[in-house]
Write a structure and sequence with these properties.
The complex is a heterodimer of chains A (512) and B (115). Chain A contains 19 helices and 2 strands. Chain A is mainly α and 512 residues long. Chain A has a two-stranded parallel ribbon. The N terminus of chain B is likely disordered. In chain B, α2 runs antiparallel to α3. The relative contact order of chain B is 0.11. Chain B contains 3 helices and 2 strands. Classes of the chains: A mainly alpha (512), B mainly alpha (115). At the A-B interface, α5, α9, α10, α12 and α19 of A face α1, α2, β2 and α3 of B.
Amino acid sequence: MNMTVVVLFLLIVAMTLAITYYAAKRTNTANEFYTAGGGLTGWQNGLAIAGDYLSAASFLGIAGAIALSGFDGFLFSIGYLVAYLVVLFIVAEPLRNLGKYTLADMINSRFDAKKVRGTAALNTITIVIFYMIAQLVGAGALIKLLFGIDYWLAVLIVGIMMTIYVLFGGMTATSWVQIIKAVLLMLGTIIISFLVLSRFNFNIFEMFTTMKTATPLGEAYLNPGVKYKVPLDTLSLMIALVFGTAGLPHILMRFFTVRDAKTARSSVIWATWIVGIFYVMTIFLGFGAAAFVGADIIQASNAAGNMAAPLLAKVLGGDILMSFVSAVAFATILAVVAGLVLSGASAFAHDIYGQIIKKGKATEKEQMLAAKYASLGVSVFSILLALFAQNLNVAFLVSLAFCVAASANLPVIVFTIYWKRFNTTGAMTGMIAGLVSSLILVAISPSVISPVEGAALFTGNPIFPLTNPALLSVPIGFIGSIIGTLVSSKQDAKRYAEVKVKANTGYRAPLS
Amino acid sequence: MGKTGQKGNSKKGENFEKIVQSSQFRELMAAKKKFLVPSIIVFLGLYLLFPILISYTNALDNAAIGDISWAWVYALLLFVMTWIMATIYMKKSALFDRMAEKVWKEDESERREAK
């Protein structure tokens, strides 16, 4: 570990703690805790969405995936970006117009049913826990590599930092940590891309021509099919990516931090540009790593390729650039896990405690206390799980989270807003069908059971052939909702009129 | 369905039913549908066609410009599509906003008259 890394690392810690200190003064009510008082502007929230979204998995993971499998690695970038059109066209504005703090709020604007709220909260918690374990285990391994400290210590440092941000600074601190991280990440990526391009004389064609022979894969590197050889698997992955984003609780929660649907819209537009430009640059990161670091060296330090970007930084800019990129990766992890804690805590404290147990009658003080206890609980629980999961291959948890989000959340969101006949039974069956089918199909998929020893949790022949079950589980979520709705004769036209008007016009939308 | 309605909301509910029937609101919904449905079909269609083309056919394997194959061109066009669609949506929404404003202005003035 060199001094530059330590200094940059401490700078980031100091900066985020200063933000938390200022945010803490402005976080006195539950509303301020969950939504930063709804006072974020379009560009701020757009950057924060990008900050939430560009996790270590997308920064280090995609750069590594492109470095090792060329075109197939880039598929993630495409899916993650186009997903924002689903968010923009279908989800963002109605969500802001109907909900207050959580996804369950939005669904329950149509059904005042405890079981619907409880199930929606359960889905949120499931997604958050899966995603969080994947992030924390990845973070531990990564920080161990970057800074040379033990795994348990790395997880503990990240865990304690995220708890401090959320516990004291709530959404205000979390948002600003995300904004700063997004700026740093873009800056780092632009510098590396510039250096990579300069080696190709700023000629894209020259870059592609060089890449044809630069890797052990030869020409295949630039063509589809290196990593995803089963056509249905590719399609299934792309479905999970494009529909999952619109159901991820920590992304959805960001739309409650703005004043109105108009600002929610402009923040998605901001995010689309930032995230899109970033994903274009993942090509340069990946190609650069493949050409100037080499697949052997990348895989020697991490089999999945997660070290590609930091190693590339070292080749291009020496220890200083590598330290900077490592520090950015650290900030990236912190921002994402903080956002996850907050959305998990809102499901526990607002949905389960505040609305179901206290029936919406909790005092301001009770709500704040509940929010803080829940944040602490979610943090401690995920840290413990991450400590035990060190030696497990948990990469599949991210795709599982996307799958649950796409299969259990999205159908219900869509039907709540757009289907007149939709009812409580349909919401229940849809959410449960989506959740259960995702869990079961992943559990029997090659991500969990692999014939290659050590490649997954269990060794053996997978029962379900696709690594990502979205191709099946998303339709199951939709069909589950439809069947449940038709089986029950209930229908509430009056309530739907209210939801339809509010969702589409923002009339009498909940204020934050 | 009084039981599922929020407390004291019955009056407001009736009001919303009236808004849904109003010509202003129906115009807004028709305009939204006319724009959103085809747009969603187009972008999802173009997006999902991509994995199908690259995994089932070799249609995109040939070089397009220099050593860049059609698969890369298609992928980058999906990026451009996202930005263009987002920009068009932004422009269209300004119109929807104005229509929505009409809807609730009308409702508010009716409420005042009722009082």
